[in-house]
Amino acid sequence: MKSVAVVGANLAGGRAVESLRQAGFDGRITLIGEEPWRPYERPPLSKEVLWDPANVPDNFFLHDEAWYAANRIEMRLGTRAEALDLAASAVRLTGGDLVQADRILLTTGGSARKLNMEGADAANVHYLRTRDDATRMATDLRDGARIVIIGMGVIGAEVAASAVKLGCRVTAIEPLAAPMIRALGPQFGQWLGVEHRQRGVDTRFGRGVTAMKVLDGRVTRVELDDGSLVDCDAVVVGVGIVPEISLARDAGIATNNGIIVDRQCRTSSANVFAAGDVAEQDSFFGGHIRQETYQNAADQAQAAALAMLGQEVDYCKPVWYWSDQYDLNIQFCGHIPVQAEVTVRGDMASNAFAAFFQSGETVEGILTVNRAPDMGIGKRLVERRAKAQAVQLSDANVSLRDLLKQAG
C-alpha cells in the first residue's frame, strides 16, 4: 500500500492519520475536510468554547500545523468530497479534482438533525456540531438572555449547564420524562432532571414543540404541545445527528443507520473503511450499533488505520462516554439491560456515587458521578462480563479491584 485518503478532518480522521504514521506507514496520506479547521476536539464546543469563544483551550486542536507538515499529511481543508470512484480507487472533490488512494477511510461523521417546522432556520436558532456553530451560539448566550433548549440529550443538557453558567434564563423542553433518559435510564435521568431544576433550569419534560413564532427573522416565542408559550431570545436544538452516509451509499457501499463495517472497520468495498460516528458496527452486547462518542471515534479510527496496514484487528468495545455538567462529572460504560438490577455504591444525595446495571449477576453497565476511579475499574468489569453480587457492589468496603481479579 502506497497511499491513503481519509475523508473527514475531525477527531476520527485526525487520530487515523496519526496512527498511520505511528505504525510506520511512510506513504502518501491525504486528509480531506469540509470545515476550514484542522482536526479538533468536540467536547469543548458545548463548554469552554461557549464560555469564552475568543480563547479556546490550548489543546483544542489535536496537533499544531507544524505537526501535519512534519508528518507529511496533505491537508485538503474547506473542501467537500463529492463522490467515491471505486473503479479508480479515488475520491472526487468539489471542482472535479481526484484524490487517488490504495485505501480510503470514511470518517464523515454526521450533521445536526434539524427541526421540521417554520422558523427552524431562523438566525437565533442554533444547532451544535462544529466550531463555527459554537462561535455563533455564544453570541446569543448573554447574561440575562432567555434561552429555550429543545432536546435534553447530552448536547442539550451540556448547553443548558453552560447557559446557566453564563447567566442565561434557561427553559429546557424534552418529550421524554427526563434528560438523557436513553443513556442513563429512568432512575438516573430523573436524578439529573432534579439537578438541572435545582440550578434554575425551567424543565418541561414530557412536552414537545408544536410551533415557533418568528418576528423579523428571529424566533421570539416557542409553543408547546400543551398550548403554553415560552418567550425567548434564542433557541438551541439538540435532537441528535444525521449520519453522513451519502458518499458510501451513492457508491453502492452497504449502509443502514450508518456505514456498515466489520470488526476490521472494513465496509462492503474491500479497500474502503469507515470509523467514528458514521460507522455502524457490531455491538458488544449483540446486534449492531452506531456509537456517537469521543472514545469510539478515537479508538475505532486507530483500529481502522492498523487494519488498512494489514494488521490483525478485532474491534468491538462497549460504549463509554462522559459528560461534564455544572460540578458533575458523569461517566457511563456498557448498556442498561431490559429489567436491569440496579445497585448504587455511595451517596446519590451528595452527587458522588456509582451505579451498576446487572443482568443476573453479570455487570453490563456502570454509571459514575464524580467517582472517576470507580469507572477505571468498572469499564473492565463490563468488558470482562464480570459477575458480582449486589451486596458486594453496594459495599464501599469491598474493593472493585478485588471483584475484577475474581473475574479473571
Automatic annotation (TrEMBL):
Keyword rRNA-binding appears in the UniProt entry: no
Pfam families, per the entry: Pyr_redox_2 (PF07992), Reductase_C (PF14759)
Domain Reductase C-terminal per the UniProt entry, residue ranges: 320-404
Cofactor(s) the protein needs: FAD
FAD/NAD(P)-binding domain boundaries: 3-301
Key words of the record: FAD, Flavoprotein, Oxidoreductase
Protein known as: FAD-dependent oxidoreductase
Species name: Novosphingobium mangrovi
